[in-house]
Amino acid sequence: MAKAARDLILRDRLQFDVDISGDTTLVYGRVDMSAFVNIVKREGFAVKEVRYQLRDPSSVNTGMFNPLLSIGSEAFASLKIFATTTAYENAQDVGIASPDVISVFELSTVRDNGGAVDENFANQWTLFGTPDLHPDGYNVVSDLLIGVSANDCTSYTDQTLEVDIMIIGEPIKLNESDMTEMLTQGQDL
Asked: Residue 56 above 60 pLDDT?
């Protein structure tokens, strides 16, 4: 999506730890939106797009993230990142039909050697983005939460990884029906 004249670009970075088993229990980072949202003044922020970039700060020279999540005997490894205004207790409950979920990014590695000497790996990523789920933008009146969870990512055991977040949107004025619908966002955090 191209940046429009009134659009702003917000950036943030979240660090998360992968444990010795290659797992990350759901953790959240918070994107402070207080400069753009004010319920009393009926000011909100229409999130038009959220972009994610995974980073490995220990990767020499580049910081690039290797998408091969599993190097062990695991047949399936996965990582999920999502933007929401509601704090969920676990990532299993988060999908594109979940209330107040703005975008979902999923990355997985499938390992299959089929009994052969050579191993085969397949990586797949899916982004259910804001333009797909909320084409006119998703109006927020609270901070955004960025959730991260990982399962069997043995390529990154006992490491700290990062996700860069870019949010494109515009400040908006809210009408009465917007306010009624969106006041629950502030209560859900």
From this structure: yes
Answer for the pair 125, 153: CB distance below 8 angstroms, yes or no: no
Task: Calculate ∠ Cα 150-9-36, nearest 5°.
Answer: 100
- Calculate ∠ Cα 125-17-150, nearest 5°: 35
pLDDT of amino acid 94? 95
Q: Are 39 and 129 spatial neighbours (Cβ–Cβ below 8 Å)?
A: no
Q: Which residue shows structure tokens 């953790």? A: 27
- Interior angle at CA 20, CA 16 and CA 23, nearest 5: 55
Phi, psi of 32 (to 5 degrees): -70, 115
d(CA 142, CA 182): 9
Place of tokens 């009994």: 115
- Any bridge partners for residue 149, and if so which? 80
Using CA atoms, how far apart are residues 167 and 136, in angstroms rounded to an integer?
14
**DSSP β-bridge partners for residue 138:** 47
Q: How many CB atoms within 10 Å of residue 93?
A: 10
pLDDT digits (tens, 9 = 90+) for 61-103: 999 999 999 876 668 999 999 999 989 999 999 999 898 899 9
pTM of the predicted protein model? 0.87
- The residue assigned the tokens 């229990």 is 25
